[in-house]
Design brief:
By secondary structure, the chain is mainly α. The protein has 5 helices and 2 strands; from the N terminus they run αβααβαα. Helix 2 runs antiparallel to helix 3.
Amino acid sequence: MITDQHLGDSIHEASTQNTSCSLQVRVMSEPWAFTHLNGLYCQGLLSSEAEYHRLLRSALRVQCKPEKDTEITHILLKMNNWATGQFPILKRFFPDVTQMFITRHLRPSLLSYVKVMQVLPR
């Protein structure tokens, strides 16, 4: 059965594939470094907000590091829902970066996340 969520995911995936094939674009889907950093910060496991910001900036620089011998001109980072709170911080660090927001409905995304968490071993 195809639901609106499945259709949305299919359209989203097709548009990403077209983007990476038609342009000189490197596509990175949901780099977990950002989600992990957010979790560490929210759990109080980092020494300060300044440390969080330094790590966040470093993570973005590593993720977007230029590749040798390629003609890549753009980088598309597909971030997950858990990293959206970092967008204003990243925009402040890199004001010339173009941001485009394509979102999924929160309820189906959360239900999907819960299903995954239920099948993972503890």
